[in-house]
Amino acid sequence: MPELPEVESLAAFLRERAVERAIVRADITAISALKTYDPPISSLVGLLIDDVQRHGKFLDISAQGVHLIVHLARAGWLRWREEQSTSLVRPGKGPIACRVVLDDGSGFDLTEAGTQKKLAVYVVRDPAEVPGISKLGPDPFSLTAEDFAEIMKAAGRVQLKGVLRNQSIIAGIGNAYSDEILHVAKMSPFKPASNLSEDELTVLYDAMRSTLEDAVKRSAGLAAQDLKSEKKSGLRVHGRKGQKCPVCGDIIREVSFADSSLQYCATCQTGGKPLADRRLSKLLK
């Protein structure tokens, strides 16, 4: 799933190429992807794109008071073309959910792989009309160390992995970067948030900032089609089960859940104790 660094880079990519361009076509080809009806997506036609922003993991393309907002979900992506096709896409055929064409002939497709169609497109007058945006917590880059400490203390016994991934607590961090942040901080994903000492709060805050900042820097200036591979190449533990930890050389382990999994290094993060790979998610005794 695209997370804060990738969506931030997509926003920067579109700001360079789409701002001050008029929308000449906006077609929905996967009806299930469109979550709003007023204003209709056709209202975007003829409008000039004036800004592109990010709200957590949401991409916000603003055009003269109307916002095309996209959540790419787990398998969605934005495919930019310098010469965008103007042909109609048959609904329900292929991975394309939405096609946008600009006045210079360029444009983009919003695509989604797989059978679970969760990519979401909203056309609204105010981003706050999107339920996911209205419930977002603060952006990681807006948090001070003191703000972060208060959030962790307020989370109580909730595990660190869950706090970092909860969009209503901190916006933009998902499964991959929460694994990366906890590895950098050398902390167990199942450590309760309220159990952190003052020093540990500082370490985790610094790990969050540095991990996300480094990922954004690595992605800066890349074309949209290159962002996925850049994200994967920069990950240290997430998605690397069975490989060697780049810090200590131990084997990276995994805990599986019903619809996701996490990866970690026992030597770096849990004092050498493997986490139980079961739904209870407790340390093996």
UniProtKB/TrEMBL annotation:
Residues 2-119 form the Formamidopyrimidine-DNA glycosylase catalytic domain. Residues 236-270 form the FPG-type domain. SUPFAM superfamilies: Glucocorticoid receptor-like (DNA-binding domain), N-terminal domain of MutM-like DNA repair proteins, S13-like H2TH domain. Signal peptide: none annotated. PROSITE patterns: FPG_CAT, ZF_FPG_2. InterPro entries: FPG_cat, FPG_N, H2TH_FPG, Ribosomal_uS13-like_H2TH, Znf_DNA_glyclase/AP_lyase, Znf_FPG/IleRS. It catalyses: Hydrolysis of DNA containing ring-opened 7-methylguanine residues, releasing 2,6-diamino-4-hydroxy-5-(N-methyl)formamidopyrimidine. Gene3D superfamilies: 1.10.8.50, MutM-like, N-terminal (3.20.190.10). Keywords: DNA damage, DNA repair, DNA-binding, Glycosidase, Hydrolase, Lyase, Metal-binding, Multifunctional enzyme, Zinc, Zinc-finger. Its cofactor is Zn(2+). Pfam families: Fapy_DNA_glyco, H2TH, zf-FPG_IleRS. Belongs to the FPG family. This is Fpg/Nei family DNA glycosylase. It comes from Kribbella deserti.
